Amino acid sequence: VLADRSAYEARVIGAAPDHDLAVVQITAPKEKRRKIAVGRSNDLEVGQKAYAIGNPFGLSLTMTKGIISALDRQIDSPGDRTISGAIQTDAPINPGNSGGPLLDKDGRLIGVNTSIASPSGGNVGIGFAI
User: Fold this and answer.
1) Residue 11, helix vs strand vs coil
2) Which secondary structure element, helix H or strand E, spans residue 62, and what is its range?
3) pLDDT tens, position by position, 29-52
4) CA 51 to the chain's CA centroid
5) Which of 116, 109, 110 is nearest to 44 (CA)?
6) Residues 49, 34: Cα–Cα separation, whole Å
7) Confidence (pTM)
8) To which H or E segment does residue 77 belong?
């Protein structure tokens, strides 16, 4: 589903389950597709602004903001593998945000939202992007 609420079929064209990532291709016409500028994760600095876009709890087109809290964290993938180089953020990463982009202040992609570490099991905790 795109921002204008138009919906298209999609298919998985690549997956890295150990990194909790997949690439999907949609059937939308070319004029509906837009490229996202890609930033460089090695240029990130702790304290810089970060924005997470996703679909938390089924609420589509949600954007939250925070900062980069730490860099080069290790997290566990759903397959119990260690993922190195994760970006820690205090931008809320709730269920449904995973797979969405983590953006810098200029709207460039700097990571893919993946998980939240929460001592309570709720949505209060530390968010991570890869």
Assistant:
1) strand
2) strand 62-76
3) 999 988 899 998 888 999 999 999
4) 9
5) 110
6) 23
7) 0.86
8) none
